[in-house]
Please model this.
Amino acid sequence: MADTQKTLTCPACGKLMEKVFIPSEGINLDICTEGCGGIYFDNREFKEFDEQNEDISKILEKLEGKTFVKVDETQTRHCPNCGGIMVKNHSSIKQEIQMDDCYNCGGKFLDNAELVKIREEYDSNTERDADILRHVYKQVGCELAEQERRYSEIDQTKYSYVRKLFGLLTGL
Ligand SMILES: [Zn+2]
Ligand SMILES: [Zn+2]
Model:
């Protein structure tokens, strides 16, 4: 079980990662805001949170106008949560997107380079955001039917946070 309070070190570039809780999605993300822009998913399931969480807009401000350092996405990664060796897996949206999976604790790491690949696949931002979000749902272990249900019920006001977050991470 991941300790969601622990500050993690980016498995790709070694910088400290920033915690981001996305209330509208009920998911925790650790984002490498000072380094490569990679994302670590530290929970496998959606959870109900009733506490007031950190305002995601502060994180978004930090990502504004940022250029992320390039990393070698083919290197073997060690899980920032448990130290286990991560395994590269492909999970398809529109094309093959590579994730690093930790089979020990269930953590997953998505390279910024992979996010940029997702961006380049789409003509429309709306279409792209929808697929990125579906991808995130999938990574945190959400069943397909549940992914679709959540997607259809997204409050557009809250969704704009997610949209902005991924937009900034993919350099849009
Ligand atoms: Zn990094
Ligand atoms: Zn792990």
In short: The pocket of zinc ion (ligand 2) is lined by residues 79, 81-82, 84, 102, 104-105, 107 (CB under 6 Å). The chain has one domain: 18-169.
